[in-house]
Amino acid sequence: MIVQPRKPALRHRSSFSRKSRRRKGGLKLIALLLVTVSSCYAAFRFDLSSYFAIKRVTVSKTALIREAYLDSICQSLLLGRSILSSLREEKNAIAGEPLVKEVRFVRHFPDCLTVQVEERKPVALVNVGELVPVDMEGIVLSLPDSLVSRELPILTPRTTALASDEEYSNRVRLNREGLRLLEAVLEFRQLAPEMLPLLSEFTLDEQGKITLVTLDDGIKVVMGKWVRKENIRYLQWMLSQLAGRADKPVLIDLSFEGQIILKNRKES
């Protein structure tokens, strides 16, 4: 009896082939899902970024800065930026403008931004051959004469009082000597603002003492190295005593503690 050899079973190979096809099909499905999810995410992200892009910028009213100029700067820096971002660089760029003191952003979601600008205001005039206004931080303000009061106190340093600003290259500010005179003005603004209209000039004498000049009578008043509260009170009292008198002194020295030294015209 002749026995024919049996052919090897194909079931295992067929089963392996089906599993391979299923595995490849699963991988294709996963790849398709990943592509679909990625595309949806990219489209969603694009829509989201477009949704939160700044489309309208409103700038607060200004008195010293030309509004059209400030509007143009803010529009160019902020339109199209994401309202969700910090906008730090844009804020620093606006704050770098010479007449800008502080900048605040108010976000109105999803796509509107309000820029609130606080301007630098002149508090004194520094004598550098011409009278130029400075603000309370000593920053020189480039302003037309029509926007600057000529009644502001004048700072007259012994030497050039201007220096480049260390933070912003497009700004000029008072140097240390100029700042000493400015601090004297600010002390009067805080402690006796009603006296400032009575004073025309703040300067330094040969010894580096702060010296004031009264507006009406041209009396020199030596305050000392710094303006102190008690010296302001002494000056208020002395000027009240001299009001209406014809024999007014040419100099009042308040720089010595507990003493008031007067110098009359005959002694000068």
Strand order of the largest sheet: 5-4-6-9-10-11-12-13
Tell me the major beta sheet.
Answer: 8 strands, mixed
Number of strands: 13
CATH hierarchy: architecture of the largest domain: 3-Layer(aba) Sandwich
Unreliable stretches: none
Question: The CATH topology of the largest domain is what?
Answer: Rossmann fold
General form:
elongated
Mean pLDDT: 87
Number of helices: 5
CATH class of the largest domain: Alpha Beta
Q: How many domains make up the coordinates?
A: 2
Note the gap between the termini: 155 Å
Helix-strand makeup class = alpha/beta
User: What percent of residues are in strands?
Assistant: 15-25%
Structure described in brief:
With 268 residues, this protein is of the alpha/beta class.
Please give the structural blueprint:
Elements: H1 11-51, E1 56-59, H2 67-78, H3 88-95, E2 100-108, E3 112-119, E4 124-127, E5 131-134, E6 154-156, E7 162-164, E8 172-174, H4 176-191, E9 199-204, E10 210-214, E11 220-224, H5 229-242, E12 251-253, E13 261-263
Summarize the structure in words.
The protein is α/β, with parallel strands linked by helices and 268 residues long. It folds into 2 domains: 56-119, membrane protein fhac (Ubiquitin-like (UB roll), Roll); 124-267, Rossmann fold (3-Layer(aba) Sandwich). It has helices spanning 11-51, 67-78, 88-95, 176-191, 229-242, and strands at residues 56-59, 100-108, 112-119, 124-127, 131-134, 154-156, 162-164, 172-174, 199-204, 210-214, 220-224, 251-253, 261-263. The chain has an 8-stranded mixed sheet with strand order 5-4-6-9-10-11-12-13, with helices on one face. A 3-stranded mixed sheet has the order 1-3-2, covered by helices on one side. The protein is elongated, with a radius of gyration of 38 Å.
